[in-house]
Amino acid sequence: MATSWFVIVGLLLILIGLTDTWRRELPVSASALYLLAGYLLGPSVLGFLQIDLQRDAVLLERLTEAAVLVSIFAVGLRLRVPLSDRLWRVPLVMATVTMLLTMALIFGAGVALGLAVGPALLAAAALSPTDPVLASDVQVEHEHDRDRLRFSLTAEAGLNDGTAGPFVMLALGIMGTHALGPWGALWWQRDLLWPTSAGLLLGWVMGFSFSRLVVWLRREREQALGMESFLTLGLIALTYGLALLLEVYGFLAVFAAGLAMRQFERVDNAAAATVVDPVTDLGPEAAAHPNRASAYMARVVMDFTLDLEKLAELVVMVVIGALLTAAAFTPQSLGIAAATCFVARPLAVLATTQGMALTTSQRRLAAWFGIRGVGSMYYLALALTHGLSGPAWRPVADAVLVTVALSVLMHGTSATPVMRLYRRARRSPLPSPPPSHR
After folding, report:
1. What subcellular compartments does it reside in (predicted)?
2. Residue span of the structural domain in which 256 resides
3. Which of 252, 276, 356, 367 could form a disulfide with 199 if both were Cys (CB 3.0 to 4.6 A apart)?
4. Mean pLDDT (whole number) for 32-60
5. In CATH, what number is assigned to the domain containing residue 250?
């Protein structure tokens, strides 16, 4: 097994590296190619990768957990818009109200297709968050990108992987593998209110304190220069570890840490911008420069996390592809997948963003690009390691796997050409009004 992984991952990395420029011209995402490669290498075709969802649930949980952590940290680093800016209103609604409505609609579809209440809620909770790992083509293009559609999809993906957690635990409680307390009192306290609010606070304190300490050491002592990769991994691991110790949501904490690092950089460089452009003039000598230290650190850390994100995307999508079998494509799983992609997400977005600061085309694109992927697989693996078993687990697993596959193929294939048309339309001047005939 280990030998196969070394050979397969090595060949894929070299192949993707050599053909990346050519691949970008294709109307298909890298994640779709990785998914196909995993399926061909898995037990359904060649049999090189032998992965079992139940037997390897702990390994799958760790792989997907690491992928989501790196990705949501990178998402936080991309968001340089001040928290007081009205641009945040849409993604906050989409990560909460929209996600809850999406979950309710998927739950209804699951029950209508024959799932019991607990499994239907588990499938809905796992499939409700959009994916920060696979959504790179529809996310902000750089830290100064203020496009409402791209910003909303990016921030939503960073937030809702954490906000889905309480409802996964609620579903496990209904199925008898997690304590909810009388009238759900324990769930409200232990799984919803405390871990959500405390997770965001912990991440913000960690990210802001870390950034301030490193920049101070570089400016005042010319210490802590370089080793940004170690510092990045250390911050992610420490923040997540403390979140687990405090029993708060680590995904939200790590997202908030990345966001706090970027917000510190923005505030720190506000005055320096009148002297030198701290964001674009970032050679190696900028690491300890009084006006550029924080911008240099944020840029290097973001570049490193984006590379890690691509590696995580490759590994996890190959695994998901290897887990796919023809038996998973049942009428029930296909129905839930179709309901998620074609009904629940579009209706929820269109209903909850009515009257908000989005154009009609932006609302339609936001309704379409609800990519499901690594986050959904993480919650499925988490449920399996928390005791999901018996006749209930297979229909839930099939629904998640088929929905992820459908979403990756559809959204991944459409993201590049559709977003190119969107960018072209946004750059085009508005047509002149018709002449008056009065």
Report:
1. Cell membrane
2. 2-425
3. 252
4. 89
5. 1.20.1530.20
Is 118 inside a domain boundary? yes
371-389: pLDDT as tens digits: 898 999 999 999 999 988 8
Kindly state whether residue 413 falls inside one of the protein's structural domains: yes
What is the token pair recorded at 155? 């921030």
Token couple for 409: 């193929």
Of the candidate ranges 194-198, 251-255, 281-285, 293-297, the one whose mean pLDDT is the lowest = 281-285
394 closest CA partner among 303, 314, 333:
333
What's the CA gap between 130 and 196, in Å, rounded? 18
- Determine the Cα–Cα distance for residues 96 and 92; give it in Å rounded to an integer: 6
Contact 386, 145 (CB under 8 A): no
> CB under 8 Å, gap of 24 or more: what pairs does 236-241 form?
236/69, 236/70, 236/73, 238/206, 239/202, 239/203, 239/206, 239/207, 240/69
The Cβ of residue 309 has, within 10 Å, a number of other Cβ atoms equal to: 22
- 3-class secondary structure, 279: coil
Q: Quick one: angle between helices 374-385 and 293-323, nearest 10?
A: 70
The answer to whether position 432 is within a domain reads no
Greatest CA separation for the chain: 80
Say which residue the tokens 């650190």 belong to: 297
Residue 331 and residue 99 in contact, taking contact as beta carbons nearer than 8 Å: no
Residue whose C-alpha is closest to residue 265's, from 294, 287, 293, 305: 294
Q: Among 91, 100, 159, which Cα is nearest to 124's?
A: 100
- In angstroms, the CA 101 to CA 323 distance is 29
Q: pLDDT tens digits for 201-242?
A: 999 999 999 999 988 888 777 776 777 888 889 999 999 999
Q: pTM for this structure? A: 0.90
Q: Is residue 348 assigned to a domain?
A: yes
